[in-house]
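Meet the record:
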Amino acid sequence: MTKFAPGMRVIIRDEEWMIKKIEKNTMGARALHCIGISPLVRDRNAIFLDDIDTVIPVDPTKVKLIVDESPQYRNTLLYLESQWRKRIPTDNAIHVGNRAAMDTMNYQLEPAQIALNQSRQRILIADAVGLGKTLEAGILMSELILRGKGKRILVVTGKAMMVQFQKEMWNRFTIPLVRLDSNKIRQIRAKLPSTYNPFFYYDKTIISIDTLKNDVAYRTHLERAYWDIIVIDEAQSVASRSDRTSQRARLAELLAGRSDTMIMLSATPHDGKAKSFASLMNMLDPTAIANPEEYTADEIKGLFVRRFKKDVKDQMSGVVLDRKISEEKCRASFAEEDAYQVFTEMQLDMDIEKKQGKGQLFKTSLEKALFSSPAACMRTIESRLKKLRKKYEDDQIKDIRLLEELHSALEQITPSSFSRYQKLLDILQDKEYAWNRKTDDDRIVIFTERVDTMEYLYEQLAKDLRLKKGEIEKISGAMSDEDQQRIVEDFGRASAKVRVLVASDVASEGLNLHYLSHRMIHFDLPWSLMVFQQRNGRIDRYGQTKQPDIRYLVNETENEKIRGDIRLLQILVEKEEQALKNIGDPATLLGQYAVEEEESVVSQAMEQGQSAEEFSKMMDDNVAEFDPLEFLLSDASEVEDSAPKISKDETLYSDTEYLFQAMKYFNQSEEHPVSKLETVHGVDINLTADIKHRMKSLLPAEVSDMLKDKNSLRLVSDKTYCMDEVRKCQQDKNGDAWPEVQYLWPLHPIFDWVNDKASLIYNRDEAPLAVMPNLPDDTCIFLMNGSIPNRKSTPLVDEWFGLRYEKGKFVEAMSLESVLSAAHVQAENAIPNQVDRENHHAGEKTANQGLLQDAVAQAKDYLAGFYQAYQERTKDQIDEELTKLAELEDKHKAYQLTLFQNKGERKREEKMREVDALFKDFTKWVNDSMTIENQPYIRVIAVLTGQQKGAN
């Protein structure tokens, strides 16, 4: 019976497959779990039974050598390049991430390096607002794709972020994500059967967390799908914040088990509570923390990275400009002073009992709305009056009467007597502010907390500034994902009319609003430092080319109570700026790490009548106090050896030259017109119907749709040029937000197609034989590739080398570089091929064919050294991993016993079984991932030979 092993290449049904796993069924037959290798079945998963299908192991000694008669050895070079570009790095260095279409800085490479240093790539990237977490995720994703670990990708993000994330991944990394927004989901449901899983139909998708949370069918589809990479953006929203687990947290826990790789992104990764942060760490590694209330830095080392602007500012010199901050004082009008007076004198019965308990007073909620706008405050009053009138029939109830009185006073505040609105108009029309609404790159973001205030500003500004339709837009969480995405995209696109964006705080998380805007106005002041940080980070972020101009509108009033409370909010403005420069995390100042809890602290300060001095001192004291969780985070994020190690991979051809030469070769039998670009390194490929069809399966739908009416596909390998094109397409009046030029680098999907087609220059059982005039007579070099996979079929050893023979005797093994140098193999200035086509060099072919068996044996001996080196290198590492798991298992069991000691024997045993199953799975994963067998897969890539004496 043939011995099969994971990693073995086999021929089944005339296609080549790699065995991933072998299982025996009850009848004794073996089920071979395979993944496709040859182009027709590439990356497809299948299961074959060896008692039904004929399974033939690929035998490298049976390869037929085909003399290369092509000009300048073109066939050999293209074939060699196609194989070389399929190499999978087996080290932990950065191979391509540093070459993405971005101004890469070392700190952005560090998260990828930290993740690659681990046995599993699972990490929380928790850098502060504006440092480029999306790009850092893209770098790691690129490295994993290169390693064959990124065929299937799922990105989960907020509704408004979907287009932005999708474009960043394509424009900078050519990762084609399919956007599953509500429109796309409608299309899918119309096209696919209701039972069909769209996550099987599309390999790389991006979807909003709200869609997954609210759509039962899609949640069900999640449970039946598996990915290579899962990315969760704004990960703080999926942490468990209390004893009750939210829908989002349950979804994230489900996803955590559906991929070996998970990347989480969050600028606010914790709420100051060890347990909620532990919930994120346990999603990344459920074995790491036994007791979520008490753990050490060592237990979570390598699972996350967190830096602030002050930590990396030196690396960002000339990229991020210091912001300009100013407070704009707004003298309260008579109508406002009257309303303030009514408000301060108001004593609500409903608040009397509440003062004895917890929670914000309703009067404080009213004040928060009042500080936003009269419209917001009136809506809050109306909502409460509706409830009170249902409860009480008598309209003369004290609280009803007082609220009606305040409502009447607020009605007297017209736009002309609304001081902050008038100040906003003054700023926008001030010559010194110099806002130029006629230019495309001088747009304004106005933030407000309340939707009612947003609506008020949207209507009133359009009227008073005489803004035409489309020149002012609004965005809030109540809008559909399609509307949110359209507005965000338009705000960053010069051809769009929008000049002013009035936003609720739904737009304060994650969105890039800095492309055409460097101006922000806080119409109301947040009661949370975290909201300040999030809002300001929309324009004060990596990639901003102008000095951010941030204005705060601050009321001035004669009312002592109102003046004191506004002063507390001014202290927040000052402290946020202080945190940016000196501390890093502004949440440290209030001692809270969630927006709601920060707002609660501010509310209590107002209700207790704290002075500005007391409030400020309280925040200073919080910074001085030892925060164990903050210490834990800062300590654990200092991971050893996180400095990026860059590998400079060399190939025979540049990306441009390889694509050009390959397309020219294909043109011999197919129509693929191609030409080089004259002013920049790149190619133009004429878009024939066949090419359009092929590209549709390789590119994002938005890009392939854009190419429908185009005549050519333009691919450019100059990343600076491509970055400029992205900016130009945003500024082009008649342009599209997706650039026509695409970045040509090793991960562009077109190379998957090109490599597959170039691999077919020679059949599966053939290899090129190149008679090289620079090699001595009776010398030949077998160019070999040998790989040794783990039990999961991922190569952990992958070597390219040469075996040199002289006069039919083995002499030495050579590095790939030595082989290419000795034979003068090069793509540029390639030497002429002097093969006599009439003769076909039968002598060389026969002589070298006879050496194949010995060459394969020598290759096995050579690879045995790499196998031994791997064993020596990883033996202690595997033992250490397994010992660590055993110790953690004991910790988990001990902790669970303390929780269930009084809950009955059955409950305890059930929990112990869960722990056993968890650590059994992880122990198996370690063994399967890190163990290799000395059964290398060997391929003869090419044979380079000199003239054989006696050959005709």
The mean pLDDT is 87. Residues 97-308 form a domain with the Rossmann fold fold (CATH 3.40.50.10810). The longest strand covers residues 795-806. Residues 11 and 56 are 5 Å apart (CA to CA).
